[in-house]
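**Archive record**
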Amino acid sequence: MEVPVIDFGELDGERRSETMALLHGACEKWGCFQIENHGIDKSLMEKVKQLVNQHYEENMKDSFYKSEIAKGLQNKSLTSDADWESTFFIWHHPKSNIDEITNLSDELRKVMDAYIDKLIKLAENLSELMCENLGIEKDYIKESFSGSKGPSVGTKVAKYPQCPRPELVRGLREHTDAGGIILLLQDDQVPGLEFFKDGQWVEIPPSKNNTVFVNTGDQMEVLTNGRYKSALHRVMADKNGSRLSIATFYNPAGDAIISPAPKLLYPNRFRFQDYLNLYATTKFAEKGPRFESMKRMVN
């Protein structure tokens, strides 16, 4: 099995409907996909990766290998809740904390801000395409996420360091993401990311040519009434290299009220006889409009 690849360059051409169907299927059946021709300057993405790797080497690597988790691996005393990762988190919206993070170079702050500005536009575009596929208003996801100050956006910057005993520890344990739409800029050489699909773990290859890897979180599953699933995933530790992961979360605001989109809900609390009466006149029509009629009757 290979994770779907969505070519955004096809959205303005003759293959738009095919591309939209591919996106819809990826959201429904996988909960993850890769985007190519996304419109973000690839030299900017390369600069982000270069500067983050440089920051790790200069400020994080030594301390990680002196940490309790590294010592625990060495003497085989690791607890089951350990993750073999070295991370920091940047908030972008509604309020940025990037100037408060110690040891970040001015160049990394500037380049990261420029990258995130582009990535937010991609997330908003993607949310509108999802809404179109679901048959709901194009701003529904963004407005549902907005709360009082707009959607919450933050980035987990992680390195999964080279691991001498990868059989003893996960890079990151199995989980689904709590939020909305996650956009990942990842390593182009070192593997490790895996998603659970149809009863088996599927390896996600390193991202060549700076594709953006996307997965949907728990709030998208709630908002779509289960149509778009949040997928279980994990990161495996690697003996041969250190893996880079820059995961940006386009999430609901903390005060956003989340509930399924009404248009995606099935009708409920109706008398079966009322449904049969409607069915008698609509039996050979599409069932979707029949469900919508029942919702209006109940309300």
